[in-house]
Fold UTRA domain-containing protein.
Amino acid sequence: MPIASISETIRSELESRILSGALSPGARIPVERELMEEYGCSRMTVNKAISSLVAAGLIERRKKAGSFVSRPIMHPTMLAIPDVQTDAVAKGQYYSFRLLRREVRTARKRNGIEAALGQNGQLLALSGIHIVDHQPLVTEERIISLASVPEIEDVDFTKVSPGTWLLQHIPWTQSETRLSSTAASMTEAPLLDIPFGAACFVVERKTWRETLPITYVRQVYNGSAFSLTGHFGVGSSR
């Protein structure tokens, strides 16, 4: 396996452990030697994965102590993140969703997010690109619980994006959103038609219907083509 792929695998699996709560805020990340042995790779490869998580704000390094899961920063106000398709159509922009991968699979136990979402059941895994005004704006990696939303297995995503379909058909009662920045990876850069390492904006969201998990999505926006604006008034609490 190429070094870049091993590094991204380490990053992805550590990220899923953090976001699922398997590694809680303040928890120590396995030391480099442990990760080298687990993945059969060099110190440089492990360091690259850890550094990308540090850049994303998920991990903090402490001199002579090691690497630890960052403690969350409390934000008094949560911004509403618009659905890409709905927002583009409302602005009169050309929009399309290009489906890159579609797979039904059993949740992987080593992946904390999949294990929590799948609950030993089947998942629909989707990858795609949101095209706005004929330019790639957002990459999307999404998993959906087929136990909670069995009807989605037959939906044609060449006509509607997964997020828009879910908003139109599946009422959710709880959501959790995480906003962060990252550098475009070797996988994301060509999909967004931007240089490797270019600044990107990341939106990660989980939704539930009562206690049933519905979906987890990770969207990576071209940082130079996206802005997020919030409008607040004095005394506003939401």
